[in-house]
Write a structure and sequence with these properties.
By secondary structure, this protein is of the alpha/beta class. The protein has 24 helices and eleven strands. Strands 1, 2, 3, 4, 5, 6, 7, 8, 9, 10 and 11 form an eleven-stranded mixed sheet that branches. Helix 14 links the parallel strand 1 (291-295) and strand 2.
């Protein structure tokens, strides 16, 4: 029962921002439609709104999200629900605007003039006459905004923070951690919620059954037989009650009281919407004194971080939010010191590039562990310390490989052999930095010329549709028997083998190339959380023993390599930077296009 309550509360928290987006968004579309269809603005102004609508419809959501990321970085809108609302209003404005405009244009254009002659102003006419007639369209606009706000990801993935995650960004974070059971449950929740909302809208806007001719004849006959009171008698009774024989306009009760109630309720709702938009009810980590930790680490590493922090007295004093590497990297480079996080754990090459561009990290002062400094991985500048080493390896499903009669590959070059066609799964560099481990090995061992290009193209050709965007995707495909062989993170294959799954791994002859992830503390001046430095020290000093069991590469003095250490650890000869990442991505994309025959 408690689990069900927690689940409902969690879902309500994720869906509530979408409902808020819907309310504000369809109000905006309605207002724009009124301006262009039932106002006296000059034609050039109306055409300008139409043009803006058309232009907005051509802007991709990702472009819009990045533009908002740069435009509002460091502002009061950053990491609030309001920036999500504004982004969704702009992203989906065109269709609701056109729906409302078409509906209002079809209505009688003289309603406002007639109402003015009767003493009503324009606003009252819109509320009492136009809105009821446009109600079906307004409900359809609501449904359109709700469904799209529930499923959007590209426009908001860079705009959410630790306390403003929505359901789609939560799915994106879970995909990075390969939590597919939770992804499935949340996806079903989205589907069910959208179906319910669409069903309610359809029921509310459906056409009512028409009255048959026979029923209409009976109604007319009944009305004709009704005995009506003499109008002079009615006038006399009216004069005796009010002193005037004039008939009053129809009323539905205490209009003044109803107006006061409606105005008060509208004011309360407006205040609640504004407060919710700025996170007054969800709270902020800064207001609570909590340290906000952004990470792209795997689930095993996050668990080790939490265990180290909790064991050192920091339980309930921090909030950890997981991101994909590209999302968090984009936020680091774009937001700089304005980033919500107080502490990050992130791929070291992104940390170095962000520091070079934004000078955003403070030197670590509380870490006591000393780096080995015997390799690129175990050497670091003063503002960061490596937490883990991610190594690449070949792994395979022993049962599937035996059934297919395929040889166990010994190198990455072997994976280009056509004998493995359709039985390989690898990671695309565009989706995850895990794919970079394979590209590093090929680029260093064979170069990016003809030989290296031929090998990488052959691997992509053999992978075919099994080219994954997630770093854990290849292992999942091998684990399920969908393919026989994959390339991915070595420690994940070791964990599967230790659990008794039919998985084994091979350290490729080219070497186990690696990437490190590091911890760093943001330098926010007077706003720097004093606990951040102590937590960074706890992650390294107290967390490394547990991390070493999963990521078996010594980094600090006193650490010993476990028995499952890699046979041939290698480090790319050039410093790993964002520029090198882009160069290898270009190399990978060229090979991928050639493999696909483009």
């Amino acid at each position: 029962m408690l689990l069900a309550v927690v689940a409902v509360a969690f879902c309500a928290f994720l869906i509530a921002p979408m409902a808020l987006v819907v309310i504000k968004s369809f109000q905006t579309g309605d207002a724009a439609g009124l301006v262009t269809s039932r106002s006296k603005l000059p034609n050039w102004a109306k055409r300008a709104v139409d043009s803006m609508s058309s232009v907005i419809n051509t802007v991709p959501g990702m472009v819009l999200g990045i533009a908002f990321l740069f435009a509002f970085s460091g502002s009061s809108l950053q990491n609030t629900f309001w920036i999500l609302i504004i982004a969704n209003i702009v992203h989906y404005f065109a269709t609701p605007y056109q729906m409302i405009k078409d509906s209002l244009t079809k209505m009688n254009g003289s309603w406002e003039t007639t109402a003015k002659l009767m003493g009503d102003n324009w606003f009252k006419t819109i509320v009492r006459v136009v809105t009821p007639n446009a109600w079906p369209t307004i409900l359809q606009v609501f449904g359109y905004y709700f469904v799209n706000a529930m499923v959007t990801i590209s426009a908001v993935v860079f705009l959410t923070g630790a306390r403003t995650q929505v359901i789609t960004t939560e799915i994106s974070a879970l995909q990075h951690l390969a939590e597919f059971d939770q992804i499935f449950a949340l996806s079903i929740l989205i589907l069910a919620t959208n179906l319910i909302v669409k069903g309610v809208v359809a029921a509310a806007t459906r056409e009512r059954g028409t009255v048959t001719i026979r029923q209409r004849v009976v109604q007319v006959a009944t009305a004709a037989m009704t005995v009506r009171r003499d109008s002079r008698l009615v006038a006399a009774e009216q004069a005796s009650r009010s002193g005037s024989p004039d008939f009053p306009l129809p009323t539905t009760g205490n209009r003044r009281g109803r107006t006061i109630f409606t105005g008060t309720l509208s004011g309360i709702l407006a205040v609640l919407l504004v407060a919710f938009g700025f996170g007054a009810f969800s709270g902020t980590a800064a207001a609570d004194g909590q340290v906000v930790i952004y990470t792209n680490a795997d689930d095993e590493a996050v668990t080790a971080f939490q265990n180290a922090l909790n064991a050192n007295g920091f339980e309930n004093k921090y909030v950890i939010q997981s991101f994909g590497t590209s999302e968090l990297g984009g936020k680091l480079l774009a937001e700089g010191r304005a980033l919500e996080a107080d502490l990050i754990t992130m791929s070291s090459y992104y940390v170095d590039s962000a520091q070079e561009r934004n000078h955003m990290f403070a030197d670590l002062t509380d870490v006591k562990s000393q780096l080995l400094q015997d390799s690129e991985n175990s050497t670091a500048p003063a503002y960061r310390r490596p937490t883990t080493v991610q190594e690449g390896a070949i792994f395979y499903n022993t049962t599937v490989l035996e059934d297919l009669g395929l040889p166990v590959p010994k190198s990455l070059a072997d994976l280009a052999d056509p004998v493995y066609a359709g039985q390989i799964s690898v990671t695309d560099m565009e989706g995850s930095s895990t794919g970079w481990l394979m590209v590093q090995a090929i680029a260093d061992a064979y170069g990016t010329g003809e030989e290296g290009r031929e090998i990488l193209t052959g691997i992509y050709r053999n992978a075919g549709p099994h080219l994954q965007m997630s770093g854990s995707g290849p292992l999942n495909s091998v684990r399920s028997g969908e393919v026989a062989i994959g390339f991915g993170l070595r420690h994940q294959a070791i964990a599967d083998k230790n659990e008794g799954l039919p998985i084994d791994y091979v350290d490729p002859e080219e070497g186990n190339y690696s990437l490190t992830e590091s911890v760093a503390v943001l330098d926010k001046g007077d706003r720097t959380n004093p606990l951040a430095q102590r937590m960074a020290a706890a992650i390294i000093d107290a967390g490394r023993p547990e991390l070493l069991r999963t990521y078996p590469n010594p980094l600090y003095v006193g650490e010993q390599a476990p028995d499952n250490g890699s046979a041939n650890p290698q480090v790319f000869p050039e410093p790993l930077t964002v520029d090198l990442l882009q160069a290898h991505q270009d190399f990978s994309e060229a090979c991928k296009r050639e493999a696909q025959g483009k």
